[in-house]
Amino acid sequence: MTASTTSSNQATGKATVPTVVPQPIGKDMESTQATQSESQSQDQPLQELSEIFFVENNRRKQSIRIQVKLCPEGVYLRRQTEQDDHINEQLIRIDDIIGSRYGSRLKKRARGGLSSCKNPNANVPEPEDEQPQAAGTGKDNSAFLYIYAYLKKEKPLRRVQTLRILRFRSSNDFAENLRTAELWHHTIRQHKLQRSGNSGEKQLLILLNPKSGSGKGRELFQKQVAPLLREAEAQYDLQITTHPNYAQEFVRTNKNLLERYSGIVVASGDGLFYEVLNGLMERMDWRRVCRELPLGIIPCGSGNGLAKSVAHHCNEPYEPKPILHATLTCVAGKSTPMDVVRVELSRRDKHYVMYSFLSVGWGLIADIDIESERLRSIGAQRFTLWAIRRLITLRSYKGKLYYKLGKTEGKSTEAKSSTEAEPPAPPKTQNVELREETSAPITQQQQIDESNRLASQRLSLPINSPEFKDIPDDDDDAATAAADNETIARNAVDDEFSDVMSLNRSIYRQHADSWHSAVSRRTAYYSVGGQSTRSNRSRLSVAQKIEDANAEFAELVPTGTMPGLQLPLPSADGWISEEGEFVMVHAAYTTHLASDCFFAPDSRLNDGLIYLVIIRAGVGRPQLLNFLLSMNSGTHLPETNNDPYIQVVAVEAFRIEPSGNQGILTVDGERVDYGPIQAEVFPGMIKVMTTNGE
Ligand SMILES: Nc1ncnc2c1ncn2[C@@H]1O[C@H](COP(=O)(O)OP(=O)(O)OP(=O)(O)O)[C@@H](O)[C@H]1O
């Protein structure tokens, strides 16, 4: 095996499969040097193994000696002959090794072919290449170690599938050879686990949506994902969703999530990831779950914005095999913190909260996304067709936009300049008004009054109205849930303080699809569980009570720092406002909105920033066409902040107040109720599986 052979095979993308054979122990002491005793217990930490192997060189009609060394960095293969001037060392990085297998020769011919080899110093006959042999039977007592690797190559960025086979036949006893192969296998596994900090005891939870994308989720999993999981020796629990909200309920109600699973992998589109995220946020132990349970995505959907953003983040290839590359990322055992955005919106005076990871859209792109659904049958072309249509009949929306600039330290100067400057004034001919928020900073008492007013409105609703029906965790919990609901109802009548709290912190979540009502389990827990708060109530001022309860509540529910949607935003707090007509306001917090839409190139997974792209009315159609056409290359945004029509600002929070009631709003590409909406970034709140993380 030479480096030149390796590279030529890599260039064609084919697996290179040399079989190298260790020299029998005792025949050449120098050639066999395990740096740790092979009889060493496998429970002890193993650091390095080293052996001399032989590979037949047909061209030269001789065997090449290769030293194979296994260490924490990976597997070094060093050719020991001096006659060849080719590069004579190769490192297969431990991060590129997905796993290994050991045993007798694989019955099935190994991918890429299994080349036979001759050990000049051994009297062991060669096995027949095409003749499968049972373990330890026949003439050959060799044990084999199959090392599966996907080498990362730049220019073009790709992963090259590589199989290295080590053949152990130092002893005439198969069991002895097998033990050696097992030791190598075990050591590789130890190094990988050590690298990822994973104990290897828990399994992955895989949630698969069989209906996502073109509806071939199950097939794609069997053909592309399962074989890799086998190579990686990954233990997993596969849950196939049977209906919308299945995944959300599964992760919300599973009591042993942290005990059983090392991570959750969503084999689906962005829609199912949304479900999982929101299900986790509904849990009482959301904080711990977010911290300890990394989430991964294998793109089987149609948009796949998150999968592409994760690949972009860790400089991993995506096309042409997105499923393979994402699976490799999910078994790499590393994770990176990722921002989550808390979105609050209202519908008929009620407020709802949802957690988003991709985008919030108002105007052009949201319209194209949702309205083109009727052309779904024609595939991705639907976006282009509908974009043309919408350019011809261009719409603009009146409303008010507020935003609070984010901290862009360490970001590119372009991003900085775009956030530090005030929005440029559009030309006078445009019907756009810019106005500073003039309302005085809101006092705490005002907040309380407003909350009380809304609370009393809300208390007039029947507490057991179906809109606020709680979902029990499972059958066992049904009785407890019923009892809880009764207590909630009682508390709602004689303890309006709890509801004042809830309103003030805007924790309502309810939606026809998947959001949960204000009287959800967590809210209920707060209402009935705040013993200490209630017992001190008579002696504390209302403001103090709210502050204390907020602190306690913040532990149970991820609350933001923004005032509730019903309250004004104080300009003194750094809020900038703009009132006028907009063609679009689209907020993104990952680089890609879909695998072919490089919408926020400066975005990072955990930069704590929302990229707000504002397009004001008056923008010319050619400029807009150019914007839409350049979105897939990420060159659609103006280079400076001087464009009066298209602007990008990096913010930490924003609010949109549309004037009318006709229009489309989307969150993570799904339509939500039209009306006021606000969002706030929670930096690095969850962890996503990556290849370059911790
Ligand atoms: N078994 C199922 N049958 C029908 N719908 C399901 C099922 N499982 C999940 N769903 C719903 O399907 C919706 C869309 O799924 P998903 O996001 O996986 O695919 P997609 O829409 O094709 O991809 P993308 O969101 O990337 O465009 C999810 O919101 C989920 O609620």
Automatic annotation (TrEMBL):
The keyword Nucleotide-binding applies. It comes from the Eukaryota. It comes from Drosophila willistoni (Fruit fly). One of its GO terms (cellular component) is endomembrane system. Residues 409-419 have a biased composition (Basic and acidic residues). Its main location: membrane. Residues 31-42 have a biased composition (Low complexity). Keywords: ATP-binding, Kinase, Membrane, Nucleotide-binding, Transferase. It is found in: Endomembrane system. The gene is Dwil\GK16232. The lineage of its organism: Eukaryota, Metazoa, Ecdysozoa, Arthropoda, Hexapoda. This is sphingosine kinase. Residues 1-13, 440-453 have a biased composition (Polar residues). Gene3D superfamilies: 2.60.200.40, Probable inorganic polyphosphate/atp-NAD kinase, domain 1. GO terms for molecular function: ATP binding; sphingosine kinase activity. Its EC number is 2.7.1.91.
